[in-house]
Amino acid sequence: MESSTYRNNTYLLQKLMQQAKINSYEELAEIAGIARRHIYRLLHGLVLQTRTDVLLKLAQALRISLSELVRAFSAQSPSLQDAEDLAALRQEYDRLQEKMQQQRESLTAEFQRETLDVLESWLTYWPSAAAKAQSNPEIPATRLLPIVKPIEELLQKWGVEAIASVGEEVPYNPQEHQLIKGKAQPGDLVKVNYLGYKQGDKLLYRAKVSAIGS
Predict the structure, then answer these.
(1) Is the pLDDT of residue 1 over 50?
(2) Which residues contact 122 (CB under 8 A, 6 or more apart)?
(3) 76 burial via Cβ count (<10 Å: 0-12, 13-18, 19+)
């Protein structure tokens, strides 16, 4: 015989599923990426004995917050120890949220690095070609300059900064500069031939430079 907790939770879950346009427990489990047994645990009033990551996936599938899910189903839980259980669940939720944020930041950094690796050749040689095109308006390449504006804006958004500028004379720094022509000692003036890049404190590519007078 079904308990009142099971009946009440069944009604509640079906109402939430209807609002989220989910037609069955099987579909809910698939959307949330969880096993069906977790849904039945919820129906039997075991919300506070269910892992937080599972509850978070269910809440996202039902398009409600985790706190709303817990509040709704814990009201029918016969084993609820209000303050202690909810405090423990909130702490676990905060820990999971922090972990997910760290994972997002890690994935974002990895994506940016892979993208920058693909763009390395363009990052190195395009500014030099653009500088030559700008110095000679008759070169048709000047028409291409506006096309790369979105890429420059993307790099700015990612915090990627150029090391010096093409043609600039700067003190030679082996940590940031790659000497491709002539000889120079640290501190000697060198000319920037191709740009290098940094992202915050991280060096991506050294600028290619040549000794003055070479």
Answers:
(1) no
(2) 151
(3) buried
| Planar angle of CA 101, 69, 65, nearest 5 degrees | 40
Measured CA to CA, the distance from residue 170 to residue 162 in angstroms comes to: 13
Nearest to 2 by CA among 40, 36, 38: 40
Among 42, 20, 41, smallest CA distance to 31 is for 20
- Beta-carbon neighbour count of residue 119 at 10 Å? 16
pLDDT over 90 (residue 177): yes
| Contact between 49 and 41 (Cβ < 8 Å) | yes
| pLDDT tens, position by position, 114-171 | 777 767 777 777 777 677 666 666 656 555 656 566 677 778 888 888 898 888 999 9
For residue 100, give both structure tokens: 């997910």
Instruction: Identify which of 117, 118, 207, 128 has the alpha carbon closest to the alpha carbon of residue 161.
Output: 207
Q: Is 130 in contact with 145 (CB distance < 8 Å)?
A: yes
The SS3 assignment for 118 reads helix
